[in-house]
Design brief:
- It is built from 5 helices and 9 strands.
- By secondary structure, it is an alpha+beta fold.
């Protein structure tokens, strides 16, 4: 996760702690990964704590991080309107990380949150299993040519 100027985020990576792979396995995105892939994700993943009201991502910014909500809630806001809500297990940033797309909406914490982040550079070093999972999420969230969803799937690809 990229912090804006003046923002201080607690990052467990700074203390060289490795995440518990069992904690990761409880998150839907990671639940079907092999033990080997989970251990690799655990090495690269970073946990971050944020307070309610924190803008996690900004519409129009480039996406360099995949973000998974471990705990807490957030709103997805596009053009000043709340278009969705996110909670534990939801993922956002996958479209930008995989396709180099800009963020499609703002995401703002509505409660205290614990987030797990993986940079696009880390994802390139991790097993193809995780990339296959992310590709499936992106495919599921992309609107079909003949219909426009009135509300995005959880995570909205921001």
């Amino acid at each position: 996760m990229t912090a804006r100027a003046g923002t201080v985020l607690k990052r467990d990576r700074e203390t060289q702690e490795v995440m518990d792979s069992e904690l990761l396995k409880a998150i839907p995105l990671f639940s079907s990964l092999s033990d080997s892939a989970l251990e690799t994700v655990a090495v690269f993943a970073t946990e971050t704590s944020v307070s309610a009201g924190k803008r996690l991502v900004h519409e129009g910014d480039y996406s360099y991080d995949l973000i998974v909500i471990e705990s807490g809630t957030a709103d997805v806001i596009k053009d000043g309107e709340v278009i969705g809500s996110l909670g534990p297990g939801d993922v956002f940033g996958e479209m930008g990380v995989l396709a180099g797309a800009k963020r499609m909406a703002d995401v703002v914490a509505t409660s205290r949150m614990r987030l797990i982040t993986l940079s696009k550079w880390d994802l390139r070093r991790i097993s193809s299993e995780i990339n296959d999972q992310l590709q499936a999420i992106v495919k599921e969230r992309q609107p079909s040519d003949d219909t426009q969803a009135s509300e995005p799937a959880a995570g909205s690809g921001t």
